[in-house]
Amino acid sequence: MPQDFFGRIVYILNRNGMSYINGAINTMIIAVVGTFIGCLIGFAVGIVQTIPLEKKDKLFKKIILRIVWFVLGAYVEVFRGTPMMAQAMFIYFGSSVVFHINMSMWFAAFFIVSINTGAYMAETVRGGILSIDPGQTEGAKAIGMTHVQTMLYVILPQALRNIMPQIGNNLIINIKDTCVLSTIGIVELFYATNGVAGALYTYFEAFTVAMVVYFALTFACSRLLRFWEKKMDGSDNYDLATTDTLAHTSGLYSYTGNRDKEEA
Amino acid sequence: MNQEQVIKISHLSKTFGKNVVLKDIDFSVSTGDVTCIIGASGSGKSTLLRCLNLLETPTTGEILYHDRDIANLHKEAAAYRAKVGMVFQSFNLFNNMTVLGNCMVGQIKVLKKKKEEARASALAFLEKVGMAPYINAKPRQLSGGQKQRVAIARALAMEPELLLFDEPTSALDPQMVGEVLDVMKQLAKEGLTMIIVTHEMAFARDVASHVVFMADGIIEEEGDPAQIFSNPQNYKTKEFLSRFMRG
After folding, report:
1. A233 at B interface, C-beta within 8 A
2. Could you give all domains of chain B from N- to C-terminal order, each with its CATH number?
3. A117-128: per-residue pLDDT in tens?
4. Are residues B55 and B18 in contact, defined by beta-carbon separation less than 8 angstroms?
5. Does A141 touch chain B (CB under 8 A)?
6. Measured between CA atoms, how close is B145 to chain A, in angstroms?
7. Which terminal residue of chain A, N or C, has fewer Cβ atoms less than 10 Å from its own Cβ?
């Protein structure tokens, strides 16, 4: 084994490059799938939590909605308020011991990351919906849209745009936090690195490579999402749909009425 | 002209908590009427208009739309609103859509029109308000007056029976006020039934067929614009109008 730092890194890469690549792939699969499903959960919960309740609504609807809100609120608080590592142990091992459910390691991984992301996203989505100017809702109502239509075509597209940075944030957090899943035996980047480091007792070098890989993954994702955001915003310019550039389009005179005539 | 009563409000009151905003309002609108509601800020004009569109639920009283009380019909509120358009002071154009999209979405989703049909009628109404060249623009790229004209086209595209205007020119500079009022004057000429809350007294005097003066949640005086503006009976009306007419 080479004696200098860079020499060892090259040596590790030659010897264990594939473990890193496999680990990174697993990390990305869990992070991307988990974030995606988490976003779906978050949207569902956030949308339900912002259903307006009016005085005139039926008692039945009020009671059901309040119960559902309570359950969703509890879900958000519990999963935001406990560490993902503990949740992983609790769900993966707990389910097999207590309920005799043998979920596969991968299912457990997706489940844990998704449900965690969902809890955070629920609050983000709720905030995103509340941040849209109430005038948008009124405008939609005024042309006869129902609550569902208003949400679908007016509010959610705008809320989605506003919470894109937070979705990116969650993806990056998930890329890093999948390392806690090594506790239930998922061979992701952290687990793989640990193996590499232990084999030759090269912790410093092995984790240098891991850090670089983690950073490359998160940085690439953050740029990609930024690019996507820009694309969602559309062009800053627009074309006038006319061939006559001298077309009178902006009302160049003021309304004066016939006031002068009358008062004269 | 054959005038049919579109809306009749009787004994309408609205309170927010202990704050009484509208007290026992009665008035009616028939087809082709252009009713201007004037009065000081805080007199309940906008709340009255918002009650008419069920954006606010009246506390008591009834709103008869073709002799049917709609004030307490919760489920059909959306269907009713599709027939009664509204133009807001703050425009409320959908920020996530282009000008054309704004004028098409209601026709497609609410009136269930085909896309081509909706596009054709949206273009026709945008043409009418002088905004046809801007179909590809987003609301944030337009000036206030342009936004308001698009908002009017959006409301017209639903082919409403009655169009409500809530201070449509209050957020605009004088030139933009002109362009929006021109459009509204044109609509009045074409016989569209409108209820307009406005501070544009000259406009109210020239265009309205009926003027309602409100103060402190009460209709103090109503009648013919010529009579209200040249010979107001109520002292509150006199005082209010004297401020505007001097200027």
Report:
1. no
2. 5-246 (3.40.50.300)
3. 999 999 999 999
4. no
5. yes
6. 8
7. C
